[in-house]
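Hey, can you fold this one?
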Amino acid sequence: MRIIRIFLTGVVFIMALQGCSSTQGWYHLPSAEFNEIEYGFEVKTQKVRNINIGYIDEGKGDILLLIHGLGSNAKAWSKNIPALSRDHRVIAVDLPGYGTSDKGHYQYTLSFYATVLKEFLAGLGVDEAVFIGHSMGGQIAMVSALENPELVQGLVLISPAGFEAFTDGEGDWLRRAVSAKFVSETTVRGVAINLESNFYDTPEDAEFMITDRLQVRGASDFDRYCYAVSLNVAAMLDYPVYDRLDEISQPTLVLFGENDNLIPNRFLHGGFTEDVAQRGMSKLNNGKLVMMSECGHFVQFEKAEETNQAVVDFLAN
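Sure. Predicted structure:
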């Protein structure tokens, strides 16, 4: 049986309600459009293929392109942009289908994203960058390195999708289970559980990841966002990047949390995160692995200072 290697990030099936934050007040949050969510940075817009791409652009110097994960947006990098932009130009993008970017009936494959990012950077006059991706964003970064190697100077993969193995049957089940309807009907409590599953010890300042998500449920393009999320699950399954890791020649830094509740998938596989990480590292030709103790899936937020220092050290070599 062919093995599909991928990690389904951001999608957690609700098995219990224990350990969840209080939901008091969340049921009465006002609705907001995606572009009304405050990012804490100026959000600019660049048009690519008639798609308006929202992005944050801070600092000067060599280019770092930050790519968020499934269901997320550029705000996921709020603890990293200030530190990394001291000596670099940091561009944190909202992928098509997410955040302030347009949402539509696009192809939503990983190759689609790699091409859009290439054209997006070209529109900014950027011909090479270090690609830094979290979870699904990590897999998109690897696809970019494979399909547009001249563009990608190096890779920083944070809890990257693409290292875990799924059978064809598991992949088919995930495709059917994670429909746009499933995403759109996630309850308030379910949103909170999904968020907390990303952390070893949920930081208090991560609550915006819940409240922002709840507010946009009333957005005019929320259904198109849910459509993008569901198709992205299939997109990750359809591009088993693990099988091509040995083709990546760029220097690569990989960061994982030792207590990642999402890698490996606890409902299908179990086991230890470091085992998954080591299997991926064994395929890379020029990679370095850093395991973060007492840290979950959202490494760059839960261990922001350590992440920023690891990236700075990697870039200095």
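The first strand starts at residue 3 and ends at 5. Let me know if you want another pass with a different chain boundary.
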